[in-house]
Amino acid sequence: MAVNVNTVYQTVLLILNKEQRGYITPDEFNKVANQVQLQILDDYFEDLNQMSRSPQNDMDYADRISAIDEKISVFRQTASVTRDTTIPNIYRLGTVTFNNIELQRVQRNEYYNIIKAPLVAPTIKQPIYLYQDNKILSFPITASPISIDFIGIPTSPTWGFTVNPNTGVYLNSPGTSTDFILMPSEQANIIIRILSYSGIIIRDPSIVQAATQQILQTETNSKS
Predict the structure, then answer these.
(1) pLDDT at 54 over 80
(2) What is the 3-state secondary structure (H, E, C) of the chain?
(3) More confident: 61 or 191
(4) What's the predicted TM-score (pTM) here?
(5) pLDDT exceeds cutoff 80 at 61
(6) For residue 217, what pLDDT is reported?
(7) Which of 42, 58, 103, 161 has its CA 20 to 30 A from that of 6?
């Protein structure tokens, strides 16, 4: 359930070389690859928000909300954490529970208003929490552990390599490479987006324009 980073890099190089447009180094590729993976992940949340407001097809393999949720699922994690302790590796926080009771997330200004009104003050059965500085501050719960569902920060895709000392050619080092966490169906999307950045790196506006048009067309088709 991943996209092979070597396949993506070699395809990008093949397209650039075929068109005699230039070259993107492994270091440049790795930086762009990480940015592209984060962009695609962020797009999932926006797409899910839009799809939730539109009529859906409930047929197998045609339910778009389920399809997007499946793509997000590869990033989803669970953990037990301690109250008021920094939690690493969180990209987006999901459900927070304690003893199978869900806590309601509030903002700091809401919290002040809530604690001033006895009728809506948090209770053990209706607890609340603040999330700030990567910490969970729960009220009135002070015990641990607290259970969380979250989207973890994706591991950066990396094309590991060595350099031939005689020719200066970059050689793939699979043992030091890290694949894209995205699902295999995203391979073409990844390549197109990396090509878009490649056009900026090698200063070729035509590549940027062609790749951008393809991205927009793909997004339009997926939402129509």
Answers:
(1) no
(2) CCECHHHHHHHHHHHHHHCCCCCCCHHHHHHHHHHHHHHHHHHHHHHHHHHCCCCCCCCCCCCHHHHHHHHHHCCEEEEEECCCCCCCCEEEEEEEEECCEECEECCHHHHHHHHHCHHHCCCCCCCEEEEECCEEEEECCCCCCEEEEEEECCCCCECCEEECCCCCCEEECHHHCECECCCHHHHHHHHHHHHHHHHHHCCCHHHHHHHHHHHHHHHHHHHC
(3) 191
(4) 0.80
(5) no
(6) 61
(7) 42
